[in-house]
Task: structure prediction
Amino acid sequence: MTAQPLKGRKILITAYDLEQSEHRGIAVYSKSLMRCLHEAGAEVWLLTEFFDKLSGKGLKNLPKRTQSMIQNARILSSLAQGRLDQPLNIWQRKFRLARKTKNFGAYFRLLINIVRRPRSYKSRDLNHFHLKELYDNPYVRVERLSYLENVAGIVSAPEIYLASQLAAELATQRPVRIDLSGFDALITTCPLNISPQKVPTFIQTIHDLIPLEYVAHNEDPLMFSHRLQACKAARRLFVSQSTANKFSAHIHRFHTPRSPQRKNVGDNSLETVIIQPPSLHFPSWLTEDGGRIADLLPISHLLKDDAFMTSMAIRKTSSASGALTPFRYFLFNSSVEARKNLLFLAKAYAESNLSKKGIKLCVTGKLKGDSYSKALKDIVAHEPGIILTGYVDESSKLDLYLNALGLVSPSLVEGFGIPVLDGACLGMPTIASDCESHIEIQSLHDFSEHVLCLDTLDSREWATALQAVANRNRDLAKQPANSRRERIARYIKFQTGFTDKLQEDLVTILS
Result:
Protein backbone atom coordinates (compact mmCIF):
# COMPACT_ATOMS: atom_id res chain seq x y z
CA MET A 1 0.00 0.00 0.00
CA THR A 2 1.27 3.49 -0.88
CA ALA A 3 -1.61 5.40 0.74
CA GLN A 4 -1.69 5.99 4.49
CA PRO A 5 -5.30 5.31 5.52
CA LEU A 6 -4.43 5.39 9.24
CA LYS A 7 -2.68 8.76 9.17
CA GLY A 8 -3.56 10.73 12.28
CA ARG A 9 -4.51 7.64 14.32
CA LYS A 10 -2.62 7.07 17.58
CA ILE A 11 -2.49 3.34 18.28
CA LEU A 12 -1.07 1.56 21.35
CA ILE A 13 0.39 -1.97 20.99
CA THR A 14 1.13 -4.27 23.93
CA ALA A 15 4.77 -5.29 24.43
CA TYR A 16 4.17 -8.36 26.62
CA ASP A 17 5.90 -10.82 24.27
CA LEU A 18 8.62 -8.38 23.31
CA GLU A 19 9.56 -8.34 27.00
CA GLN A 20 10.37 -12.05 27.09
CA SER A 21 13.93 -13.39 26.85
CA GLU A 22 13.27 -15.09 23.48
CA HIS A 23 11.53 -13.39 20.58
CA ARG A 24 9.48 -16.23 19.14
CA GLY A 25 6.20 -16.47 17.22
CA ILE A 26 4.09 -13.85 18.99
CA ALA A 27 7.00 -11.40 19.19
CA VAL A 28 7.45 -11.82 15.42
CA TYR A 29 3.74 -11.07 15.01
CA SER A 30 4.09 -7.98 17.23
CA LYS A 31 6.87 -6.61 15.03
CA SER A 32 4.84 -7.23 11.84
CA LEU A 33 1.86 -5.49 13.42
CA MET A 34 3.86 -2.39 14.30
CA ARG A 35 5.47 -2.24 10.87
CA CYS A 36 2.14 -2.53 9.01
CA LEU A 37 0.45 0.10 11.19
CA HIS A 38 3.39 2.47 10.81
CA GLU A 39 3.45 2.07 7.03
CA ALA A 40 -0.32 2.72 6.99
CA GLY A 41 0.36 6.11 8.58
CA ALA A 42 -0.52 5.38 12.22
CA GLU A 43 1.43 6.80 15.15
CA VAL A 44 2.40 3.59 16.95
CA TRP A 45 3.13 3.49 20.68
CA LEU A 46 4.27 0.53 22.78
CA LEU A 47 2.78 -0.44 26.17
CA THR A 48 5.33 -2.00 28.53
CA GLU A 49 5.21 -2.87 32.21
CA PHE A 50 8.92 -2.16 32.61
CA PHE A 51 9.48 0.86 34.85
CA ASP A 52 12.28 1.53 37.31
CA LYS A 53 11.28 4.07 39.92
CA LEU A 54 14.38 5.97 40.93
CA SER A 55 15.32 5.45 44.56
CA GLY A 56 17.90 7.09 46.72
CA LYS A 57 18.09 10.70 47.83
CA GLY A 58 20.80 11.56 45.33
CA LEU A 59 18.84 10.48 42.24
CA LYS A 60 15.61 12.03 43.51
CA ASN A 61 17.35 15.38 43.85
CA LEU A 62 18.41 15.44 40.22
CA PRO A 63 16.57 17.71 37.76
CA LYS A 64 13.37 16.15 36.42
CA ARG A 65 14.72 15.96 32.88
CA THR A 66 17.80 14.11 34.10
CA GLN A 67 15.65 11.69 36.09
CA SER A 68 13.52 11.04 32.99
CA MET A 69 16.60 10.34 30.90
CA ILE A 70 17.79 7.73 33.42
CA GLN A 71 14.35 6.12 33.76
CA ASN A 72 13.84 5.94 30.00
CA ALA A 73 17.26 4.36 29.54
CA ARG A 74 16.38 1.68 32.11
CA ILE A 75 13.09 0.91 30.37
CA LEU A 76 14.85 0.49 27.02
CA SER A 77 17.57 -1.59 28.67
CA SER A 78 14.92 -3.95 30.09
CA LEU A 79 13.33 -4.31 26.64
CA ALA A 80 16.76 -5.00 25.14
CA GLN A 81 17.54 -7.73 27.68
CA GLY A 82 14.11 -9.25 28.25
CA ARG A 83 13.11 -11.17 31.35
CA LEU A 84 16.27 -13.18 31.74
CA ASP A 85 15.96 -16.46 33.65
CA GLN A 86 12.47 -15.60 34.86
CA PRO A 87 9.70 -18.12 34.08
CA LEU A 88 6.58 -16.65 32.54
CA ASN A 89 4.28 -18.47 34.95
CA ILE A 90 6.03 -17.47 38.18
CA TRP A 91 2.82 -16.44 39.95
CA GLN A 92 0.96 -19.52 38.87
CA ARG A 93 3.82 -21.60 40.30
CA LYS A 94 3.56 -19.72 43.57
CA PHE A 95 -0.13 -20.57 43.70
CA ARG A 96 0.62 -24.26 43.18
CA LEU A 97 3.42 -24.20 45.73
CA ALA A 98 1.17 -22.63 48.32
CA ARG A 99 -1.60 -25.16 47.68
CA LYS A 100 0.73 -28.14 47.87
CA THR A 101 2.63 -27.13 50.99
CA LYS A 102 -0.27 -25.44 52.79
CA ASN A 103 2.39 -23.19 54.18
CA PHE A 104 0.94 -20.20 56.00
CA GLY A 105 3.88 -18.00 55.08
CA ALA A 106 3.48 -18.76 51.37
CA TYR A 107 -0.24 -18.00 51.55
CA PHE A 108 0.44 -14.79 53.44
CA ARG A 109 3.00 -13.52 50.92
CA LEU A 110 0.71 -14.44 48.04
CA LEU A 111 -2.18 -12.66 49.72
CA ILE A 112 -0.07 -9.51 50.05
CA ASN A 113 0.75 -9.63 46.34
CA ILE A 114 -2.93 -9.99 45.46
CA VAL A 115 -4.01 -7.20 47.80
CA ARG A 116 -1.26 -4.83 46.62
CA ARG A 117 -1.75 -5.50 42.92
CA PRO A 118 -2.98 -2.52 40.88
CA ARG A 119 -6.64 -2.93 39.96
CA SER A 120 -6.74 0.07 37.69
CA TYR A 121 -4.32 2.51 36.11
CA LYS A 122 -5.28 6.14 35.89
CA SER A 123 -3.71 8.38 33.28
CA ARG A 124 -1.37 9.87 35.89
CA ASP A 125 -0.04 6.35 36.71
CA LEU A 126 1.42 5.98 33.22
CA ASN A 127 4.84 7.17 32.14
CA HIS A 128 5.06 8.39 28.54
CA PHE A 129 8.10 9.31 26.52
CA HIS A 130 8.45 10.06 22.83
CA LEU A 131 11.32 8.38 21.01
CA LYS A 132 12.04 11.67 19.23
CA GLU A 133 13.23 12.94 22.61
CA LEU A 134 16.11 10.42 22.50
CA TYR A 135 18.97 12.23 20.82
CA ASP A 136 21.71 9.88 19.56
CA ASN A 137 20.43 7.13 21.83
CA PRO A 138 22.40 3.84 21.91
CA TYR A 139 19.35 1.58 22.30
CA VAL A 140 17.89 2.41 18.89
CA ARG A 141 20.99 0.70 17.45
CA VAL A 142 20.49 -2.57 19.32
CA GLU A 143 19.38 -5.36 16.96
CA ARG A 144 16.79 -6.73 19.38
CA LEU A 145 15.14 -3.29 19.44
CA SER A 146 15.16 -2.77 15.68
CA TYR A 147 11.35 -2.64 15.79
CA LEU A 148 11.63 0.82 17.42
CA GLU A 149 12.03 2.29 13.93
CA ASN A 150 8.26 1.82 13.62
CA VAL A 151 7.44 3.12 17.11
CA ALA A 152 6.76 6.75 18.04
CA GLY A 153 6.85 6.37 21.81
CA ILE A 154 6.73 4.19 24.91
CA VAL A 155 4.01 4.02 27.57
CA SER A 156 5.08 2.39 30.83
CA ALA A 157 2.40 1.01 33.17
CA PRO A 158 4.33 -0.57 36.06
CA GLU A 159 3.54 -4.29 36.51
CA ILE A 160 0.39 -4.14 34.39
CA TYR A 161 0.88 -7.60 32.91
CA LEU A 162 1.68 -9.08 36.31
CA ALA A 163 -1.41 -7.40 37.75
CA SER A 164 -3.58 -8.77 34.94
CA GLN A 165 -2.23 -12.30 35.50
CA LEU A 166 -2.92 -12.14 39.23
CA ALA A 167 -6.45 -10.87 38.58
CA ALA A 168 -7.00 -13.67 36.05
CA GLU A 169 -6.10 -16.27 38.73
CA LEU A 170 -9.03 -15.26 40.93
CA ALA A 171 -12.32 -17.15 40.81
CA THR A 172 -14.24 -14.10 39.56
CA GLN A 173 -13.02 -12.43 36.43
CA ARG A 174 -12.09 -8.80 36.99
CA PRO A 175 -9.95 -7.35 34.19
CA VAL A 176 -7.46 -4.65 35.10
CA ARG A 177 -8.68 -1.25 33.96
CA ILE A 178 -6.37 1.25 32.29
CA ASP A 179 -7.13 4.83 31.27
CA LEU A 180 -5.85 5.34 27.72
CA SER A 181 -7.09 8.85 27.11
CA GLY A 182 -5.50 10.32 24.01
CA PHE A 183 -5.22 7.03 22.10
CA ASP A 184 -7.51 5.97 19.27
CA ALA A 185 -7.03 2.22 19.72
CA LEU A 186 -5.40 -0.46 21.84
CA ILE A 187 -4.30 -3.67 20.10
CA THR A 188 -3.05 -6.57 22.21
CA THR A 189 -0.69 -9.03 20.56
CA CYS A 190 -2.07 -11.88 22.69
CA PRO A 191 -5.17 -12.22 24.93
CA LEU A 192 -4.83 -10.08 28.07
CA ASN A 193 -7.11 -9.71 31.07
CA ILE A 194 -7.41 -5.95 30.75
CA SER A 195 -10.20 -3.45 30.12
CA PRO A 196 -9.06 -0.20 28.47
CA GLN A 197 -11.00 2.95 29.36
CA LYS A 198 -11.57 6.10 27.29
CA VAL A 199 -10.24 4.57 24.08
CA PRO A 200 -12.64 4.18 21.13
CA THR A 201 -11.32 0.87 19.75
CA PHE A 202 -10.10 -2.24 21.60
CA ILE A 203 -8.73 -5.19 19.62
CA GLN A 204 -7.38 -8.46 21.04
CA THR A 205 -5.27 -10.95 19.07
CA ILE A 206 -5.97 -14.62 19.71
CA HIS A 207 -3.26 -17.06 18.65
CA ASP A 208 -4.49 -20.33 20.09
CA LEU A 209 -6.35 -22.16 22.87
CA ILE A 210 -3.40 -24.44 23.65
CA PRO A 211 -3.32 -23.98 27.46
CA LEU A 212 -6.88 -25.33 27.55
CA GLU A 213 -6.37 -28.30 25.23
CA TYR A 214 -2.83 -29.43 26.08
CA VAL A 215 -2.18 -30.24 29.74
CA ALA A 216 1.64 -30.10 29.48
CA HIS A 217 1.47 -26.40 28.61
CA ASN A 218 2.87 -24.24 31.40
CA GLU A 219 -0.03 -21.79 31.76
CA ASP A 220 -2.83 -22.20 34.28
CA PRO A 221 -6.15 -22.93 32.48
CA LEU A 222 -8.18 -20.62 34.75
CA MET A 223 -5.84 -17.72 34.08
CA PHE A 224 -5.88 -18.31 30.34
CA SER A 225 -9.67 -18.78 30.27
CA HIS A 226 -10.15 -15.38 31.90
CA ARG A 227 -7.76 -13.86 29.37
CA LEU A 228 -9.90 -15.31 26.59
CA GLN A 229 -13.11 -14.13 28.28
CA ALA A 230 -11.72 -10.59 28.22
CA CYS A 231 -11.60 -10.88 24.42
CA LYS A 232 -15.40 -11.10 24.21
CA ALA A 233 -15.74 -7.37 24.84
CA ALA A 234 -13.18 -6.54 22.15
CA ARG A 235 -12.80 -6.81 18.43
CA ARG A 236 -10.77 -9.90 17.61
CA LEU A 237 -7.94 -10.93 15.30
CA PHE A 238 -7.45 -14.69 14.87
CA VAL A 239 -4.14 -15.91 13.43
CA SER A 240 -5.72 -18.99 11.84
CA GLN A 241 -9.11 -20.39 10.93
CA SER A 242 -8.42 -23.26 13.30
CA THR A 243 -8.11 -20.85 16.23
CA ALA A 244 -11.27 -19.00 15.16
CA ASN A 245 -13.21 -22.28 15.05
CA LYS A 246 -12.02 -23.31 18.51
CA PHE A 247 -12.82 -19.90 20.00
CA SER A 248 -16.31 -19.98 18.51
CA ALA A 249 -16.96 -23.52 19.75
CA HIS A 250 -15.63 -23.17 23.28
CA ILE A 251 -15.48 -19.49 24.27
CA HIS A 252 -17.81 -17.22 22.34
CA ARG A 253 -20.28 -18.65 19.87
CA PHE A 254 -20.59 -15.93 17.25
CA HIS A 255 -19.33 -17.22 13.91
CA THR A 256 -16.11 -18.45 12.39
CA PRO A 257 -14.92 -15.48 10.31
CA ARG A 258 -13.12 -15.80 7.02
CA SER A 259 -13.03 -12.10 6.25
CA PRO A 260 -13.75 -8.95 8.29
CA GLN A 261 -17.47 -8.62 8.91
CA ARG A 262 -19.57 -6.69 11.39
CA LYS A 263 -22.03 -8.41 13.72
CA ASN A 264 -25.26 -6.81 14.87
CA VAL A 265 -24.50 -7.27 18.55
CA GLY A 266 -24.28 -5.01 21.58
CA ASP A 267 -20.51 -5.00 21.92
CA ASN A 268 -19.88 -3.61 18.40
CA SER A 269 -17.77 -6.67 17.65
CA LEU A 270 -15.61 -7.00 14.58
CA GLU A 271 -13.46 -10.05 14.03
CA THR A 272 -11.40 -11.58 11.27
CA VAL A 273 -8.89 -14.28 10.48
CA ILE A 274 -5.57 -12.82 9.35
CA ILE A 275 -2.41 -14.33 7.93
CA GLN A 276 0.69 -12.79 9.41
CA PRO A 277 3.70 -12.11 7.19
CA PRO A 278 6.73 -14.44 7.30
CA SER A 279 9.44 -13.56 9.80
CA LEU A 280 12.71 -13.24 7.86
CA HIS A 281 14.04 -9.84 6.84
CA PHE A 282 16.71 -9.16 4.26
CA PRO A 283 19.01 -6.12 4.05
CA SER A 284 17.68 -3.41 1.76
CA TRP A 285 20.72 -3.48 -0.56
CA LEU A 286 19.92 -7.10 -1.33
CA THR A 287 16.37 -6.47 -2.47
CA GLU A 288 16.58 -3.07 -4.17
CA ASP A 289 16.56 -4.56 -7.66
CA GLY A 290 13.88 -7.24 -7.83
CA GLY A 291 15.21 -8.47 -11.15
CA ARG A 292 18.75 -8.99 -9.85
CA ILE A 293 18.73 -10.53 -6.39
CA ALA A 294 22.23 -10.78 -4.96
CA ASP A 295 23.56 -13.78 -3.07
CA LEU A 296 23.85 -13.62 0.70
CA LEU A 297 26.84 -15.63 1.84
CA PRO A 298 26.54 -17.12 5.34
CA ILE A 299 28.45 -15.19 7.98
CA SER A 300 27.17 -16.91 11.12
CA HIS A 301 29.68 -18.79 13.25
CA LEU A 302 27.34 -21.77 12.93
CA LEU A 303 28.06 -22.03 9.20
CA LYS A 304 31.24 -22.08 7.19
CA ASP A 305 31.24 -20.53 3.73
CA ASP A 306 30.87 -22.80 0.72
CA ALA A 307 34.52 -22.77 -0.41
CA PHE A 308 35.72 -23.43 3.10
CA MET A 309 33.48 -26.46 3.51
CA THR A 310 34.65 -28.13 0.32
CA SER A 311 37.81 -29.20 2.11
CA MET A 312 37.54 -32.83 3.20
CA ALA A 313 39.76 -32.13 6.17
CA ILE A 314 37.31 -29.55 7.43
CA ARG A 315 34.36 -31.85 6.78
CA LYS A 316 35.94 -34.56 8.88
CA THR A 317 36.21 -32.20 11.84
CA SER A 318 32.93 -30.36 11.34
CA SER A 319 30.97 -32.77 13.52
CA ALA A 320 33.27 -32.20 16.45
CA SER A 321 33.35 -28.45 15.99
CA GLY A 322 29.59 -28.20 15.54
CA ALA A 323 29.96 -26.41 12.18
CA LEU A 324 27.13 -26.80 9.68
CA THR A 325 27.64 -27.22 5.94
CA PRO A 326 25.26 -25.29 3.65
CA PHE A 327 22.45 -27.55 2.38
CA ARG A 328 23.64 -30.45 4.51
CA TYR A 329 21.28 -30.07 7.48
CA PHE A 330 17.60 -29.94 8.43
CA LEU A 331 16.42 -27.00 10.50
CA PHE A 332 14.12 -27.07 13.53
CA ASN A 333 13.42 -23.44 14.53
CA SER A 334 11.10 -23.39 17.53
CA SER A 335 11.17 -23.21 21.30
CA VAL A 336 12.12 -26.38 23.16
CA GLU A 337 8.96 -27.65 24.86
CA ALA A 338 6.84 -30.78 24.86
CA ARG A 339 4.24 -29.38 22.46
CA LYS A 340 6.88 -28.92 19.75
CA ASN A 341 7.46 -32.71 19.77
CA LEU A 342 11.22 -32.44 19.42
CA LEU A 343 11.94 -35.80 21.08
CA PHE A 344 9.84 -37.45 18.38
CA LEU A 345 11.84 -35.62 15.71
CA ALA A 346 15.15 -36.66 17.31
CA LYS A 347 14.01 -40.29 17.22
CA ALA A 348 12.99 -40.00 13.55
CA TYR A 349 16.30 -38.39 12.67
CA ALA A 350 18.24 -41.17 14.41
CA GLU A 351 16.20 -43.78 12.52
CA SER A 352 16.95 -42.06 9.21
CA ASN A 353 20.73 -42.70 9.56
CA LEU A 354 21.33 -39.35 7.86
CA SER A 355 24.08 -38.50 10.34
CA LYS A 356 26.22 -41.19 8.69
CA LYS A 357 25.88 -39.27 5.43
CA GLY A 358 26.97 -36.04 7.09
CA ILE A 359 23.45 -34.53 7.13
CA LYS A 360 22.70 -32.98 10.49
CA LEU A 361 19.67 -31.79 12.42
CA CYS A 362 20.06 -28.20 13.64
CA VAL A 363 17.90 -27.25 16.63
CA THR A 364 17.56 -23.60 17.57
CA GLY A 365 15.94 -22.73 20.87
CA LYS A 366 16.95 -22.18 24.45
CA LEU A 367 17.02 -25.31 26.59
CA LYS A 368 15.15 -25.02 29.86
CA GLY A 369 15.85 -26.58 33.21
CA ASP A 370 12.95 -29.03 32.90
CA SER A 371 12.76 -32.77 32.32
CA TYR A 372 11.96 -32.33 28.62
CA SER A 373 15.18 -30.41 27.91
CA LYS A 374 17.13 -32.91 30.01
CA ALA A 375 15.73 -35.80 27.95
CA LEU A 376 16.76 -33.99 24.76
CA LYS A 377 20.31 -33.48 26.04
CA ASP A 378 20.50 -37.19 26.87
CA ILE A 379 19.57 -38.06 23.27
CA VAL A 380 22.04 -35.56 21.81
CA ALA A 381 24.82 -37.10 23.90
CA HIS A 382 24.37 -40.31 21.88
CA GLU A 383 23.47 -38.69 18.54
CA PRO A 384 26.30 -36.41 17.34
CA GLY A 385 24.37 -35.38 14.23
CA ILE A 386 22.00 -33.20 16.30
CA ILE A 387 23.38 -29.68 16.79
CA LEU A 388 21.91 -27.57 19.59
CA THR A 389 22.58 -23.90 18.84
CA GLY A 390 20.62 -22.30 21.64
CA TYR A 391 18.61 -19.18 20.88
CA VAL A 392 20.02 -17.40 17.80
CA ASP A 393 19.86 -13.76 16.72
CA GLU A 394 18.04 -12.63 13.58
CA SER A 395 21.17 -12.60 11.42
CA SER A 396 22.07 -16.19 12.31
CA LYS A 397 18.46 -17.27 11.84
CA LEU A 398 18.48 -15.82 8.33
CA ASP A 399 21.66 -17.75 7.49
CA LEU A 400 20.23 -20.98 8.89
CA TYR A 401 17.05 -20.71 6.81
CA LEU A 402 18.78 -19.76 3.56
CA ASN A 403 21.23 -22.67 3.77
CA ALA A 404 19.04 -25.44 5.18
CA LEU A 405 18.32 -28.57 3.20
CA GLY A 406 14.81 -28.54 4.63
CA LEU A 407 12.66 -27.43 7.54
CA VAL A 408 10.96 -29.75 10.05
CA SER A 409 8.08 -28.93 12.40
CA PRO A 410 6.45 -31.93 14.14
CA SER A 411 4.35 -29.84 16.59
CA LEU A 412 1.41 -31.57 18.23
CA VAL A 413 -0.65 -28.37 18.01
CA GLU A 414 -0.03 -24.83 16.75
CA GLY A 415 -1.95 -21.60 16.65
CA PHE A 416 -0.39 -20.87 13.27
CA GLY A 417 3.17 -22.02 12.53
CA ILE A 418 5.53 -19.24 11.43
CA PRO A 419 8.49 -21.61 10.73
CA VAL A 420 6.34 -23.56 8.25
CA LEU A 421 5.22 -20.34 6.57
CA ASP A 422 8.86 -19.20 6.33
CA GLY A 423 9.86 -22.50 4.76
CA ALA A 424 7.00 -22.40 2.24
CA CYS A 425 7.76 -18.80 1.24
CA LEU A 426 11.38 -19.77 0.58
CA GLY A 427 10.30 -22.77 -1.46
CA MET A 428 12.25 -24.93 0.98
CA PRO A 429 11.25 -28.58 1.41
CA THR A 430 9.22 -28.57 4.62
CA ILE A 431 8.00 -31.55 6.63
CA ALA A 432 5.31 -30.58 9.14
CA SER A 433 2.77 -32.25 11.37
CA ASP A 434 -0.81 -32.50 10.18
CA CYS A 435 -2.30 -30.08 12.71
CA GLU A 436 -4.99 -27.84 11.22
CA SER A 437 -2.91 -24.65 11.15
CA HIS A 438 -0.14 -26.36 9.16
CA ILE A 439 -2.72 -27.70 6.71
CA GLU A 440 -4.06 -24.14 6.31
CA ILE A 441 -0.58 -22.94 5.38
CA GLN A 442 -0.12 -25.87 3.00
CA SER A 443 -3.33 -24.85 1.17
CA LEU A 444 -2.08 -21.34 0.35
CA HIS A 445 -0.68 -20.39 -3.06
CA ASP A 446 1.62 -23.17 -4.34
CA PHE A 447 2.73 -24.20 -0.85
CA SER A 448 1.44 -27.76 -1.25
CA GLU A 449 4.39 -28.31 -3.63
CA HIS A 450 6.82 -27.56 -0.82
CA VAL A 451 5.03 -28.52 2.43
CA LEU A 452 4.43 -32.17 3.31
CA CYS A 453 2.07 -32.70 6.26
CA LEU A 454 2.41 -36.02 8.08
CA ASP A 455 0.84 -37.44 11.21
CA THR A 456 3.13 -37.93 14.18
CA LEU A 457 2.09 -41.49 15.03
CA ASP A 458 5.02 -43.22 13.35
CA SER A 459 8.59 -41.91 13.60
CA ARG A 460 9.70 -44.22 10.77
CA GLU A 461 7.40 -42.40 8.36
CA TRP A 462 9.19 -39.17 9.24
CA ALA A 463 12.57 -40.90 8.91
CA THR A 464 11.59 -42.00 5.40
CA ALA A 465 10.44 -38.48 4.52
CA LEU A 466 13.75 -37.03 5.74
CA GLN A 467 15.65 -39.51 3.60
CA ALA A 468 13.52 -38.71 0.57
CA VAL A 469 14.03 -34.94 0.92
CA ALA A 470 17.78 -35.43 1.36
CA ASN A 471 17.99 -37.64 -1.76
CA ARG A 472 15.86 -35.41 -3.98
CA ASN A 473 17.68 -32.22 -3.03
CA ARG A 474 21.29 -33.37 -2.84
CA ASP A 475 22.17 -31.11 -5.80
CA LEU A 476 21.34 -27.92 -3.86
CA ALA A 477 24.81 -27.90 -2.35
CA LYS A 478 26.45 -27.97 -5.81
CA GLN A 479 25.26 -24.44 -6.64
CA PRO A 480 24.58 -22.87 -3.25
CA ALA A 481 24.63 -19.29 -4.51
CA ASN A 482 21.90 -19.98 -7.07
CA SER A 483 19.86 -21.87 -4.49
CA ARG A 484 19.99 -18.95 -2.09
CA ARG A 485 19.13 -16.36 -4.75
CA GLU A 486 16.08 -18.36 -5.83
CA ARG A 487 14.90 -18.61 -2.24
CA ILE A 488 15.40 -14.89 -1.58
CA ALA A 489 13.55 -13.77 -4.74
CA ARG A 490 10.61 -16.04 -4.00
CA TYR A 491 10.49 -15.03 -0.34
CA ILE A 492 10.42 -11.29 -1.07
CA LYS A 493 7.47 -11.74 -3.43
CA PHE A 494 5.39 -13.59 -0.84
CA GLN A 495 6.46 -11.35 2.03
CA THR A 496 5.24 -8.28 0.15
CA GLY A 497 1.89 -9.91 -0.60
CA PHE A 498 1.29 -11.10 2.96
CA THR A 499 2.32 -7.73 4.43
CA ASP A 500 -0.04 -5.81 2.14
CA LYS A 501 -2.92 -8.14 3.04
CA LEU A 502 -2.30 -7.81 6.78
CA GLN A 503 -2.19 -4.04 6.46
CA GLU A 504 -5.48 -4.11 4.54
CA ASP A 505 -7.13 -6.28 7.23
CA LEU A 506 -5.86 -4.01 10.01
CA VAL A 507 -7.26 -0.92 8.30
CA THR A 508 -10.61 -2.70 7.96
CA ILE A 509 -10.87 -3.78 11.58
CA LEU A 510 -9.79 -0.34 12.81
CA SER A 511 -12.29 1.49 10.64
